[in-house]
Amino acid sequence: MSNVDFSYRYLFPMTKRTDGEKGIGLFLLFVLLLAFAAVALALMAQDPAEPMVLGILALLSVVGVFSLFAGAVGILHFGHTTVQNDLTKNYADFLSEGLFITTLDGTILYANEAYFHLLDADVNTAPPSVEQAFAGHISVSDQIFRLSRAALRGEPWIEEFCISGFSKSKSYAAYHKILVPSSIAQSQKIPSSLFSSQSTSGTRSDFCEDESADVMRWFRISVDPLPENNALGMHEPHIVWRICDITGERNRQEDTFNKLQEAIDYLDHAPAGFFSADTNGRIKYMNATLAKWLKRDLADVATSQLDVLDIFYGESGELLLRQTPEKTVGNDSHALQDMEMDLVCADGTSVPVRLLHQVGGLHGHTGQTRTLVLNRSHGSENAENVRAAEVRFSRFFHSAPIAIATIDEHGRIGSTNAAFAKLFSVGNGLQVVEGMSIFDLVNGSDREELVQHMAMAKAGQVLGAPIDITLGLEGDRSGRLFVSPIERGYNDREAAIVYAIDTTEQKALEVQIAQSQKMQAVGQLAGGIAHDFNNVLTAIIGFSDLLLGNHRPTDPAFKDIMNIKQNANRAASLVRQLLAFSRQQTLRPEVLNLNDVLSDLSILLGRLLGEKVKLKVAHCRDLWLVKADSTQLQQVIVNLCVNARDAMPGGGLLSIKTRNLSEADCRNLANSTIEPAEYVVMDVEDTGTGIPEENLEKIFEPFFSTKEVGKGTGLGLSTVYGIVKQTGGYIFPESEMGKGTTFRIYLPRHIEVVEEVNTPQKSEKREKPRDLTGSGSVLLVEDEEAVRSFAARALTARGYQVLEASSGVEALSVIEEHDGDVDLIVSDVVMPEMDGPTLLRELRKVRKDIKIIFISGYAEDAFRKNLDEDEKFAFLPKPFSLKQLAAAVKETLQG
User: Fold this and answer.
1) Cα(545)–Cα(795) distance, rounded to whole angstroms?
2) Which end of the chain is more exposed for a tag (fewer CB within 10 A), N or C?
């Protein structure tokens, strides 16, 4: 083992220069000087040498006497080693943790006494290295290896590990002894007396535990590099090792952990439930008792991110999430709240509970909640009947879907349920809290009525009429309040109970139903007028044809008769528009592609719009098919385009776009009146003046028009509405003043079946036979005498035998009394006593093959549902001309 000479400033010197070594040098020098002096005196003569010898002897005598006195008083020490840097070395020697210094190659230069005792090593032997001390413990070989590698690299490192079979010394009295191996002491010639303290009484508590050899012990070993420093006498780097027994520290940590586990176990199995949630309502802790009540697995609760709203019935959990500064107490926590609610179990059942709820806080910031849960279910406690009634009331109060709040005589809000807080918070930007005035929650126009009701409630008067109020900052929501007085003896602070319900959806439905009923009523009125007017027009057109047949074009009266017929035809066109609005017109539906219809109309639309209006058509690729009457659909497009043109007197842009709308997208539409399905959508958008908001609900009404007198009939948009509705679609206007209007039409998608013919049906246009005369017996059944008279004369003039009847009952009698067969029946649909379909069913009982033509001002579909599905008949809509009647009769008879 090498001996290194460290400076006195070095922290842990191993070997020291002694005063004895210095004294030997001085002694030899002194001897040489004496020898030199003796030789010199011998060579000198006796006379001059004698005084010098006496002087030298006197000097040596003085030095000797001084040395004796100095040695006696301790000024001089003879034969003792003086160790430098005693304070630093004493600190290292008296450390409670083991400390030793090695070179990079592992040579131990210094070890304190604590190191020997921690490793149970003999202090009189050479100190063992860490590898040697723990060589028999394979479980810590990895940690020791990492420490050795770090020491070899000169890097700091620390390891903690636990081993068994490492017993501590019971006690030792000489803890202050400096532990230096005897081999080192002998090599340095250090007296053993220097390695002991004058006072060695007492023991160290860390090392006086009486433990067996198999006791588990924890060690912490660290490695720190000590760089070389030539100025301090260190000519190579060294390693400082520290070893500490941390068994007591670990035991204290284990005790603390066990106590914490016991506390958690006590809380988990407490007879009351407990949970804590963060500010977002996420449950951070729930004890086992509450998890058992909720029939949830405690492990799943910790990993499933359970929310407060997930364990409360209805919207009761909202009350726990609403905290306000008025309920805080200082800066530490919110006030304690006592609530009765229902919890929801994992299987959907409910548990009535009482909550003691508090929200933690620090320096004004809201923290996590602390909620104690008491089970109120049957059998959980033997409460009094009054308490049970209170629990049931609280459950009903907080679980009620109707908003409820108690109000004092000044209008301040007391207790509220979750429904009340939600009703008045949504859209108001307010948070309903206890102590707030209820008058601040309603708009100014409704406040006066509420004040009157509160005054009457304060006086104890029972109020029956509710108060309709407007909610929301923008007034887009509505509600209804019911104020009920409270008996003053019950609670002097509470004057009334306010019940509130949200009527926003109800009001919207009422408006929609009212609009629908109005349109339906107007449609029924228009249809009834059209039907009766059709009979009049039929007679006018028919008799005009009879007169024209008796007058030549050169006759003066011929032109007047033609004017009568032309105006009757114009009136018939208006009637058809009324029937279209009332959805009672006759449609000939066919499978169409809306893009093809727009392409066919593009040239016509260009002429109608003129030069000032630019037309832009955007076709959707792969547009779905629809089933509609092609002629009526063209009329819809033309009417909308003409209206758009009139709304852009200075010119503008008219855009027509088509697109597909899936069922999923349809469900996401803001308009709830559209039944979810697949639709083909057509948008007709202009950049005109726009439609005032007050007129949007009236534009589809017949005869409503904003145009000047004489420039419109008011039936254009009503006709569009009727055709779209009869086709099974929807139409909605959107307009903004000064920017334009958009009419959005939704037509149901048509999916063809295999059996269906893909070629579209052509509009039924009869080719008029040149010869309209015929023969046979025709029964004419019509309750309108003018129509029946005209038709009878017209058919008689064409060679038919005509029988007349004013009703279905009379028609059966005529057939029964007539000699011979009736070849054809021409019957009105709507008649008194017996209508046309009923007449046909009666006739089929005796005549299976009889032919019939129905004439009516209503659509064919209006009465077809009253007949058998396989029933065959012809149909002639009113009004009709003489030629149309004669042609229909001849075609039907000819089959």
Assistant:
1) 13
2) C
